[in-house]
């Protein structure tokens, strides 16, 4: 599968997109905090025969604008809307992991006409989480930057497919490998999640929803249960052998359940 690179510019912020092209139903993939579009490559290869797959580096990440002035939830959501509209994807199957899932949820709530269905991977609306920005800051500060090699980075990130994907997202610089983002932009992107609940937005979602959780993921069982109880029509799946990065740990399973969701619930 060959990606075609496209750029979408919204409010002066350049967003770098990867588009598989083709006549299939459009799917937009949103990566999580500190991630990049390339995380979705394994998923994209499995879907590209039947879908037009698009992924993009969100603001502050990867090849997109590194230092955006606005890292609010509204800015991330408006970026997703701009990509859908400018690339002619709507109504789209919108898939997001972690913070990307949160962005996908807000997009579906705000612009329902653009979202055919929603797949949330290790993402919940949840209550305010005041400690999250500080926890993520401490985690980012623990990275032994620069990493001396991709092998060392992959080991730091836990090894396996997920560790290799995180390592592949680093860029070369003086003395080693560095993240393709600014630490303060990542922490700032979580400020609103730390300050308030988004359960109201969750109740505004009207399209079919599939919630995918990793067997050893980060989502607390009570948060998943509360999410599903507030919207009983939501389909939920737990993926064995997967952690928070379900799309990296078990891409074939994620694609299978996504296809089943489309075939059973949308046709």
Condensed summary:
By secondary structure, this protein is α/β, with parallel strands linked by helices. Helix content is 39%, strand content 21%.
Descriptive report:
This is Pimeloyl-ACP methyl ester carboxylesterase. Residues 27-256 form the AB hydrolase-1 domain. GO terms for molecular function: catalytic activity. InterPro entries: AB_hydrolase_1, AB_hydrolase_fold, Carboxylesterase_BioH. This protein is an alpha/beta fold. The chain has a single domain, classed as 3-Layer(aba) Sandwich (Rossmann fold). It has helices spanning 41-47, 73-86, 99-110, 132-141, 150-156, 160-168, 183-188, 191-195, 199-204, 221-230, 246-249, 251-265; strands at residues 4-10, 13-19, 25-30, 51-56, 92-97, 115-121, 171-173, 176-178, 209-214, 235-239. An eight-stranded mixed beta sheet has the order 1-2-4-3-5-6-9-10, with helices on both faces. A two-stranded antiparallel ribbon has the order 7-8. Helix 2 (73-86) packs across helix 3 (99-110) and helix 5 (150-156) packs across helix 6 (160-168). The longest helix is centred in the C-terminal third of the chain and has 15 residues, at 251-265.
Full CATH superfamily name: Alpha/Beta hydrolase fold, catalytic domain
CATH topology, by name, is Rossmann fold
**Main sheet properties:** 8 strands, mixed
Q: Give the mean pLDDT.
A: 96
Question: Could you give the count of β-strands?
Answer: 10
Q: Label the CATH architecture.
A: 3-Layer(aba) Sandwich
Strand content: 15-25%
CATH class equals: Alpha Beta
Q: Give me the side-by-side strand order of the main sheet.
A: 1-2-4-3-5-6-9-10
The domain count comes to 1
Which series of helices and strands comes N to C?
EEEHEHEHEHHHEEHHHEHEHH
Number of alpha- plus pi-helical segments: 12
Distance between the termini: 26 Å
* Helical proportion, percent range: 25-40%
Radius of gyration: 17 Å
Structural class: alpha/beta
3D shape: globular
Low-confidence stretches: none
């Amino acid at each position: 599968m060959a990606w075609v690179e496209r750029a979408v510019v919204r409010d002066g912020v350049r967003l770098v997109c990867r588009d598989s092209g083709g006549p299939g139903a459009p799917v937009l993939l949103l990566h999580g905090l500190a991630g990049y579009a390339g995380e979705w490559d394994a998923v994209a290869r499995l879907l590209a025969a039947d879908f037009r797959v698009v992924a993009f580096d969100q603001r502050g990440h990867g090849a997109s604008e590194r230092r955006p002035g606005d890292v609010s939830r509204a800015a991330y959501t408006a970026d997703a809307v701009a990509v859908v509209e400018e690339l002619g994807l709507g109504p789209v199957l919108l898939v997001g992991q972690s913070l990307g899932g949160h962005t996908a949820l807000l997009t579906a709530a705000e612009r329902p006409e653009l979202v055919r269905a929603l797949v949330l991977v290790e993402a919940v609306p949840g209550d305010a989480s005041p400690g999250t920005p500080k926890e993520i800051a401490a985690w980012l500060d623990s990275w032994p930057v620069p990493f001396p090699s991709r092998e060392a980075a992959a080991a730091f990130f836990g090894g396996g497919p997920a560790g290799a994907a995180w390592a592949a997202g680093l860029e070369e610089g003086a003395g080693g490998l560095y993240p393709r983002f600014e630490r303060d932009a990542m922490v700032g992107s979580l400020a609103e999640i730390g300050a308030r609940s988004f359960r109201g937005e969750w109740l505004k979602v009207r399209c079919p929803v599939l919630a995918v959780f990793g067997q050893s993921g980060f989502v607390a069982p009570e948060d998943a249960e509360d999410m599903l109880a507030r919207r009983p029509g939501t389909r939920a799946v737990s993926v064995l052998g997967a952690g928070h990065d379900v799309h990296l740990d078990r891409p074939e399973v994620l694609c299978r359940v996504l296809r089943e969701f489309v075939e059973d619930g949308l046709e």
